[in-house]
Write the structure tokens for this entry.
Amino acid sequence: MAVSFTVGGARGTFAERFAEEVVGVLDNAFGAEGDWDGPTALHFGEMADTGWSELQRRAGEELGFEAVPNLMALGEDGRGVYLPAHVQTASLPLSAGGALRCASLPGLRNELGALAERWELPLDDHGLNELLCVGHDPDDGYVAEPPEILTFARLALAANEAVRRDCPLWLLGPIAE
């Protein structure tokens, strides 16, 4: 099942009643640490079905699972929120849709930086957008990066925007939207 990346506040991301609950849960857990309502949501597309689990697996194997706690915090299905604050990873109960998994956006950015260095990938928007484009090899025809690299690029692009806007980065599945 595909997971999409959305940058913005809870009210622009979810239906009004659910957004109110999410904001309340985050306020109770983290206080006024961040603006959970935030600006209008921007969507950064969906990732491949295997992209998230492959990204987690490769990052854990290459950097060590303890070195990527924020990347691992959203679980194998990759659903939850990266908050624009230095918070401990948490799983918060909601009345609908199970628990809300939360992790730190600054922590995620550090982990993405370590991965970019290890994999020799860019972290700037222009370079990340180029990774997302399908290239044409004169010998092999059209080629694309592996799913975990495409997921890395889409996640890093969304994280860059979330940092610029100082707002949450949501990873959402069809049920939560």
